[in-house]
Structure formats: structure tokens, C-alpha cells
């Protein structure tokens, strides 16, 4: 079955960086586009970024454009989200998403 396991979340200071990872299994990883989404406390789900199956195209929400970089390693079935210049409003539970399947999420907290 499809499994998506996120890791790499934690506490960061404003202006800091974190790198999220998502380990995928149970499907043919290299033929699917993938996404990151997040949910802040008390708010709805927000799509953050997406990447084509071959990794050559990425796209981002305006709220993270220029600060976050999404990548993938199809040889390792891994998805990444490099988050720089973090802001308190980036605090959320971050999910790896594939065709309707979601991981359990990894918590990112940005606070002084």
C-alpha cells in the first residue's frame, strides 16, 4: 500500500532553515507528480509546492516562493522541501501528498 513518511520538522527561529524529507513506498514513485501541503493551527489546508515526476518542473504558492525549494530523488523514492528564511506564519503541520494519499505530517514551528 502507499506509504508516505515525513520527517525533518522541528523548531526554528525566524530567518532560519529546515529541510523536510518524505520517504515514499508502495507505488511507482517516478511516474507521479508530488506535492507538499500544510495546515496551520486553526486554519485550513494550504497547498505549498509541487514537482513534476521527472523533477524538472517545480511550482510554489506565492507565500513561499523564493524561500522554499522542492526536490526529489527518484532513485531513492525521496521527496524534499528545503525551507529558508522561515517566518512565524510558516508554522504548520507539513504533509507529503501523492494522488490523494497523505503522510502523517511533520510539525514545523517557527518562533523566537
- Residue share in helix: under 10%
Number of helices: 0
Tally of strands: 11
Task: Determine the mean pLDDT.
Answer: 96
Mass-distribution shape: globular
Radius of gyration (Å): 13 Å
Give the low-pLDDT segments: none
Helix/strand order? EEEEEEEEEEE
How far apart are the first and last residues' alpha carbons, in Å? 40 Å
Question: Which percent range describes the beta-strand content?
Answer: over 45%
Q: What structural category do the secondary elements indicate?
A: mainly beta
Biggest sheet character: 7 strands, mixed
Describe the model:
It is a single chain. The chain is an all-beta fold and 112 residues long. Helix content is 0%, strand content 52%. It contains no helices and eleven strands. Strand 9 and strand 10 (101-102) form a beta hairpin.
Jot down its keywords.
11 strands, four-stranded antiparallel beta sheet, 0% helix, 112 residues, mainly beta, globular, seven-stranded mixed beta sheet
Summed up, what is this model?
Helices cover 0% and strands 52% of the residues.
Chart the SSEs and their pairings.
Elements: E1 3-7, E2 10-12, E3 18-25, E4 34-39, E5 45-51, E6 58-60, E7 68-73, E8 78-83, E9 92-98, E10 101-102, E11 106-110
Parallel strand pairs: 2-11
Antiparallel strand pairs: 1-3, 3-8, 4-5, 4-9, 5-6, 7-8, 9-10, 9-11
Amino acid at each position: 500500500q502507499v506509504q508516505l513518511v515525513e520527517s525533518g520538522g522541528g523548531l526554528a527561529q525566524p530567518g532560519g532553515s529546515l529541510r523536510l524529507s518524505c520517504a515514499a513506498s508502495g507505488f511507482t514513485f517516478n511516474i507521479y507528480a508530488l506535492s507538499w501541503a500544510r495546515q496551520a493551527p486553526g486554519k485550513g489546508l494550504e497547498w505549498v509546492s509541487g514537482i513534476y515526476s521527472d523533477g524538472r518542473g517545480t511550482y510554489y504558492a506565492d507565500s513561499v516562493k523564493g524561500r522554499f525549494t522542492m526536490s526529489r530523488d527518484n532513485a531513492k523514492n525521496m521527496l524534499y522541501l528545503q525551507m529558508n528564511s522561515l517566518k512565524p506564519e510558516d508554522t504548520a503541520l507539513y504533509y507529503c501528498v501523492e494522488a490523494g494519499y497523505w503522510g502523517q505530517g511533520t510539525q514545523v514551528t517557527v518562533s523566537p
